Amino acid sequence: MNAERMIDRIEKLAQCSRSVRGVTRLAFTKESEQANHLVDGWMKEAGMKVRRDALNNIIGRYEGMDPDAPVLLIGSHLDSVAEAGKYDGILGVIAGIEVVHAMHENGIVTKNPIEVIGFCDEEGTRFHTTLLGSRAIVGSLSEEDLEARDHEGVTVAEAMQAIGMNPDQYGRAARDPQSILGYLELHIEQGPVLWEKGQSCGAVAGIAGQSRFEFKVEGQAGHAGTVPLSMRRDALVGAAEMIQAVERIALEYESVVATVGKLAVLPGASNVIPGVVEGTLDVRSLHDETKRNALLAIIEEFHRIAHRRGLVCHIRRVMDSPAVVCTSQYVQTIETVLAQRGMKPLRLVSGAGHDAMALALITDIGMIFVRCKEGVSHHPDEYASPEDILESATVLMNVALRLTT
Ligand SMILES: [Zn+2]
């Protein structure tokens, strides 16, 4: 495995960017085509046959001893958020190419073929539709998805046409589940756990399910000087107590994280008692049942607090996605390799979504998380060290070998 080659490629891909600050590479753009062109060349150099599927996912195939055996997929995404770091997504594609490159250079041919995939759009930055590439591959993409528009009003279908693709063919990207052995994804952690634990990489237990709510607390606005405290129905003081309750209740449930990330105070003047507060609640867990129980407790407490303070609380669910658990055999294989290389068998929960979520619909999945500096991601300061990149790619290689031979 060649760390320098991987770093060099990460830097080159970072140049395929619309923004000067950080990396901005959206799906079906000049920049994504530049990135695909580079990846195409590196895949060929690594001994792979390269093709683009009907959604512009780039796929390199390294033939196995048995070409009819189901294929092991290794992938991640090539698109980015706005002003992103250099490693999110990219690292998994570059590490996958490096694994095959090392096999090719050392004359290693596995029983199963291996395909490395760079997905065209995971983040959903441009069209607000996440996992376009991987959902096409598992056959869960619909015509409706292709009608999503970017902020200039361009649809996915139009953007595909603009780079010479035929959107009507999107169904052809779907793969036969029988032809797939499993899916591996290496990705930066995007959180601080590995950084805190002082370890290069870890196994991912699964991707947390997520529920998002909007809530509204209604009280009574009034003069900040003339209404006595005992006679107030202050929506913000009530909301503050509710937010405290969110943290307290979430802490009672293992593996639940809960966040109130947005708050609007109305009418919003220094001399007016807050009459209305609108906010968001985001609750995640790897265990759907636990998440549900924590949510029920939180909602009950919201209403209890509102009632006691003479407030009215409305709460509305706007999004709910179930957790995706990684295949236990894959998690164990990753842990075995970690132990072999002198690391602890750390199991992490992903609080962020990944292409593996889509792949889980049709095949076994395993994920390796790589330490990133201070857990910073979706930011130009995102950083993974050459040592950690080399170590995690080596783990990926060993896991791939164990699964295919
Ligand atoms: Zn990512």
Automatic annotation (TrEMBL):
Its cofactor is Mn(2+). The keyword Membrane does not apply. The keyword Cell wall biogenesis/degradation does not apply. Keywords: Hydrolase, Manganese, Metal-binding. Homodimer. PANTHER family: ALLANTOATE DEIMINASE-RELATED. This is Allantoate amidohydrolase. Belongs to the peptidase M20 family. It comes from Brevibacillus choshinensis. Residues 209-300 form the Peptidase M20 dimerisation domain. Gene3D superfamilies: 3.30.70.360, Zn peptidases.
